[in-house]
Amino acid sequence: MKELVKTFEDLPKIAKIILAIPCLDIIWAIVRIIKGVAYKNAVTLIAGILWIFPGCFVCWLADIICAAIDRDFLFMKGEEA
């Protein structure tokens, strides 16, 4: 699972932005869930679960902004424990 998370985090900027548009942003929610489980991070796991519903309506904008300025996505920091 860690390899999958690493693959998504290493995507080019344009691919991250495309995957952050409304309705496709659910992909980043799933990546958050996987990362939360893989790294045993409860905050990332809960954020991923909650990101599924509002992510399609509001949170996608935060993901696009983070991708555009080459920042880590919200609640996806702190991988290695």
User: Strand pairing plus helix content: what structural class?
Assistant: mainly alpha
**Overall tally of structural domains:** 1
User: What is the straight-line distance between the termini?
Assistant: 15 Å
Q: Which spans have pLDDT < 50 for at least 5 consecutive residues?
A: none
Number of helices: 4
The counted number of beta strands is 0
What shape does the CA trace take?
globular
Radius of gyration, in Å, reads 11 Å
Largest sheet: none
* β-strand amount: under 5%
Q: What percent of the residues sit in helical stretches (DSSP H or I)?
A: 55-70%
Order of helices and strands: HHHH
Average pLDDT, rounded to a whole number, is 87
How is this structure best summarized?
The protein is mainly α.
